[in-house]
């Protein structure tokens, strides 16, 4: 080992032992050897570096870095020191730095296998695919006698989508190797076949599968691949035979049925019916052949008889998710109408004489009626006929008061009406009927969060979290993201933006962790030969942030940051000053006294919190000491007070916005959010880009309205700012405006036109009135509010979520500027006409009463008193909960 | 009492950590097995030729892009307007033969 500072032979042997111990994770022993060397040679660079590396694994981060740095300083000509320093950077997730260190190490020892391997792992981790290929090439040259060298090199081309070279390498390699019957060979062959199929070489793929069928142990995969290839070659008959085999293996896989049907080329309805009838006979326990005809039958008579049979069977068997199973039929009005008349008929007959119909001779079990009620409740709920839905769910509960599912559906109906507290009561009832059911527990907790009852939600969730840690903390550890997202929403509703942002950032960190978690698998999967799954994993990780959870958290975070940008929170402790304009001196004095008291109270609380914080930190330190297997770098703590006072909220958005722009580009909402951020940043080209994407992805009324909104905002900004734009920028924008047919348009005219065309649409009305206001905030506020107020139930349909959003925006004064209390009240009563039951449109007093009633009825009672106090405070300050 | 508590906690802890041992194995260090093959060397040369050809093609493209001259202020404008890194901005400008307006249009429609 070349080093500027060689050790005498005894110590050199010890050094070798250190390396060995390190590889075998015997860190304590390794450290003993280190100590021994350092006794004699306290400045030996490579030993110091090794000490750093080992300390890093025993979670002494700062000491580790110090050692490695000292080691490197003492021996900059040693590849070991550079390598170790790179490894430490890597464990700190500083990948670029780590790569630089590896490169330095390789300059000193260009043929070092271990460093090249580590380099290739980093390159694949950050998807530097070309760099990865070059490194794998070097590895192959150095070690052609290792299987991994070949496969790694082939894979680098596969990932670069250069299938022919990838194939070539694998083919050349396979020529040199005898075939063996084992898992590794089988996986390698399947991987090779995957590349053939991705290169669309289906003939070759089939031949390859046939030639190697004895060596491929995963028979299911073999069949699926072959069927896929045959289908692509239009060899339908052969494909059909394989699909038949596959259905035999698993009669519940929908895809097999669909592919079989397609490869048999069935055209007429009768052929299809016949086909599914035969399969249904052959696989009587499978639901698919029974259900599929319901989807393609168009003749109402025929449909009626099929669905009747399907429904009756399901009711007799008590199939709980029946409604979910056939909800897909509800896109066709004729179908749900038939279902409705049938099932309502069943209900009446069953009520009188336990039969599905008067002329039937068969008596049904008593549970049949229960499931019919249950079905009808969900049916009418889906059709938004909530009163009817409630009638049926209550009948069901009277019939069997102990069935958990009934209370869940009842809660759901209440939720859809906007009665958040009644929904909570139902779910709590469900939860207490079966406290060991995790699903029901989670539902209950979620409904509580929807009603902004965060403490109660935690209390319920705590039934399934580890006793030793705080529920929210445990749920974070478990990466339980639905909870974090719902909690973020709840915190936002009650104005605790910092806490809401904390939850969003937690979700973001989970995703970061998912990406980090790949790292160990780069070497593991190659070694274990699970190549196809490995490549699938890489592809999944490439798009991991397209997951709905990431999207939801991002949307909340961006909206909050926009809000904090437009209306920043006051400095800590100063948030209590309300508007004092129209108060008498006496009132003012009283208020000031009250504020002082509150401030004192707040300060006390803060101190208490700080103490707690301190304790927790100490505890954490202890824990870290005990926990030896924590390789992750220590992350900055997320503090709500800090998060809700960002220096530059718009820059903070990037962490969320950039990924969703890349991975959730199909949703117009993404670009709507992007537009709002870029609008505030005054980036005309990015605004234009977002605008074009909204246009491209919008087909619902909702987003056509949003397009109108953004287009108008863009034009207004453009008129104001165009003098300051660079000429080329201006040129591009004008060109794009022409394409969008917006060039030279007057916003006033556009908006007038938009409003007159879309009178009957609430989303459009909201947007139109907002633009009207923005055109001239001083003069048009009343006009805009009037537009809002003059809506009537006869000619307008509104959905609850939109209505709630709109109401909040107005009430929180960031829609039409500052509105008088009367105006807000007017809008509230107006919207109440549409949603008579919804909690949010009730008076603050009514809401407070509802909440108290709700809390008192719950199975948990620890927060009743605190809530009671809170309520009056909260309800008087903000009338929204 | 305290002792018993601790013990049960420790037990609970170990119960929650099943699977951790398997995960540990993922990071194990294992030296690769050596394989033998009669003509591994021949196989390598077959691939080498392919690689050469491909490297030449790529170098050609890079040479062409490198010959395009771009203005520094254009690059900066793109960086500022689109919030992208300098190398990316430069690349796009070069791909559009240094024409700023074309580059901006390409990015708006990206």
From TrEMBL, chain A:
Stretches the record annotates as Disordered: 591-644
Biased composition (Acidic residues): 628-638
Keyword Ribonucleoprotein among UniProt keywords: no
Cited SUPFAM superfamilies: TPR-like (SSF48452)
Organism expressing this protein natively: Brachionus plicatilis
One Pfam family it belongs to: TPR_2
UniProt entry tagged with the keyword Transcription regulation: no
Biased amino acid composition, Basic and acidic residues: 603-627
Gene3D superfamilies assigned: 1.25.40.1010, 1.25.40.1040
Keyword terms, alphabetized: Repeat, TPR repeat, Transferase
InterPro entries the record matches: NatA_aux_su (IPR021183), TPR-like_helical_dom_sf (IPR011990), TPR_2 (IPR013105), TPR_rpt (IPR019734)
The name this protein goes by in its record: N-alpha-acetyltransferase auxiliary subunit
Molecular function (Gene Ontology), one example: transferase activity
Coiled coil: none
GO CC, any one term: NatA complex
Segments annotated as TPR repeats: 79-112
UniProtKB/TrEMBL annotation, chain B:
GO biological process: negative regulation of apoptotic process; protein stabilization
InterPro entries to which the protein is assigned, alphabetical: Huntingtin-int_K, HYPK_UBA, NAC-like_UBA
Listed Pfam families: UBA_HYPK (PF19026)
Residues covered by the Nascent polypeptide-associated complex subunit alpha-like UBA domain: 68-108
Region (Disordered): 1-24
Superkingdom to which the source organism belongs: Eukaryota
Keyword hit for Coiled coil: yes
Alphabetical list of Gene3D superfamilies matching this protein: DNA helicase RuvA subunit, C-terminal domain
UniProtKB keywords: Coiled coil
Entry coiled-coil feature ranges: 51-78
PANTHER family: HUNTINGTIN-INTERACTING PROTEIN K, HUNTINGTIN-INTERACTING PROTEIN K FAMILY MEMBER
Protein's UniProt name: Huntingtin-interacting K
Organism whose genome encodes this protein: Brachionus plicatilis (Marine rotifer)
Lineage per the UniProt record: Eukaryota, Metazoa, Spiralia, Gnathifera, Rotifera
